[in-house]
Automatic annotation (TrEMBL):
UniProtKB keywords: Hydrolase
Name recorded for this polypeptide: Glutaminase
EC number(s) given by UniProt: 3.5.1.2
Length: 313
């Protein structure tokens, strides 16, 4: 049933979030917490939170929406945004913008495609983005962290050093990707620096509340929380387009089918989704499906857009 209010009335956001939480509850027992990064394996598979931040500054939440979790690949949304804001279109010389149809940590396409990763959200592409952000700012992870702090208003938001060390200690695939990209001349910084800063931004701990607030600039067509402009409306539209086509890896089609919004997932179980012109959402549940997307978060976002009738389609 749709609960979209008549024009002029404030939508019943708490009711929509309640509906989403109920849908997430029905997924209890499904999926598995990521364990290829050992520090993530300790997450509670039954935790669930969801937040919504409107373009006007209202924030709503349900469940564990203020509990920090490992943002992982959700950070790639912000590293890409900052690279575009600092350097514009140059990034597209080093990374493509087509869906990969392969797992997020796959190496196979790089060989045939001359070290130019398919898109900025698979690990290979995110390493190139981190490299360029490192060149532009001197500290790619610090730039992502500071952006998240400013948009969320949480000055203590930071990298979790235990998770970062765990990633680095089990990062053979990422190291292989980075060396292969470097062999093709597509990194500006030393491989060790790029990997270190990549792990540091993936290992940032933030809550659904923080991430919904930080993602809001994409719903506001490029405007930040303080009213300043991070990027043009056209650039924000382009990020939303790449989120829609590539943000959920080789399940981007399934995510569009079920949720119908631009979104970015991470193996910590978080998903940020954008309702352009209206709000940013973040849903979180640590148990993942086989592709690496949160079972509960996808179910919650699916229920939210079904009940509200809001999607980009
Ligand atoms: O590099 C990795 O494997 C992790 N730091 C991030 C992967 C991730 O979140 C992919 N998400 N579905």
């Amino acid at each position: 049933m749709q609960t979209t209010p008549a024009p002029g009335l404030t939508p019943d956001y708490p009711e929509l979030l309640h509906t989403a939480r109920e849908a997430a509850r029905e997924t209890a027992g499904q999926g598995r917490v990521a364990d290829y990064i050992p520090a993530l394996a300790t997450a509670d598979p039954d935790a669930f939170g969801m937040a919504l931040a409107t373009v006007d500054g209202e924030v709503y939440g349900v469940g564990d929406w203020e509990q920090p979790f490992s943002i992982q690949s959700v950070s790639k949304l912000f590293s890409l945004a900052l690279v575009l804001a600092h350097g514009g279109d140059r990034i597209w010389r080093g990374v493509g913008r087509e869906p990969s149809g392969n797992p997020f940590n796959s190496l196979v396409q790089l060989e045939n495609e001359h070290g130019i990763p398919r898109n900025p959200f698979i690990n290979a592409g995110a390493l190139v983005v981190t490299d360029r952000l490192q060149s532009m700012t001197g500290d790619a992870a610090g730039a992502v962290r500071d952006f998240l702090r400013q948009e969320s208003g949480d000055p203590l938001l930071d990298t979790d050093p235990v998770v970062a060390a765990s990633e680095a200690g089990h990062g053979h695939r990422n190291a292989a990707l980075a060396h292969f990209i470097a062999a093709h001349g597509n990194l500006e910084n030393p491989v060790e620096t790029v990997l270190d800063r990549y792990y540091a931004h993936c290992s940032i701990a933030a809550s659904c509340r923080d991430l919904a607030l930080a993602g809001r600039f994409l719903a506001r067509h490029g405007l930040r929380a303080d009213g300043s402009r991070l990027m043009t409306g056209s650039e924000a539209k382009r990020i939303n387009a790449v989120l829609l086509t590539c943000g959920a890896y080789d399940a981007a089609g399934e995510f569009a089918f079920r949720v119908g919004l631009p979104g970015k997932s991470g193996v910590g179980g978080g998903i940020v989704a954008i309702l352009p012109g209206r709000a940013a959402l973040c849903a979180w549940g640590p148990a993942l499906d086989a592709v690496g997307n949160s079972v509960a978060a996808v179910a919650a976002l699916d229920a939210f857009t079904t009940a509200s009738g809001w999607s980009v389609f």
